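Reference record
================
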Amino acid sequence: MAALPDYVCILLEGAGEEFDPGVVVSEMERGLAKMRVGQSRVIVDIPASLMFYAQQDTISFETWYFQTIKRIGFFDWLNPRTNQLLSVRFKGGDIGKLVPVTSGYALAKRDVTLQYLR
C-alpha cells in the first residue's frame, strides 16, 4: 500500500479526532428518545495540516496525489495518539488549498482531513 511521502510533515497542533457515533434515534411522545446502534463501524475524521519544507516537495506531493493514490486512494499513516498504522484517505479526496508560509512557496502548507474506518 502507498504511504505518505517522507518529505511531508503532518502537524496535528490544535487537531483532534471526531466521529459520527452511528446511532439511530427515535423520538418518543413522552420520556427519553429510544436509541439503537445503526452502524457497526464508524468513520473517524482527523483534521491536520501538511507542511512542505521545499518548493519541490509541493510539486512531488501533487504527483504522488494524482499518480500514486489517484486522489481517492488509501495510504498508510502512523497515528501518533495510538501508535497504530492506519489505512487512511483524504476526506472527499480534498487536499485543500496550498498556502505559502514564506515567499516563493519555500515553506507551504495544506489543511486536510484524514479519514479512516474504525
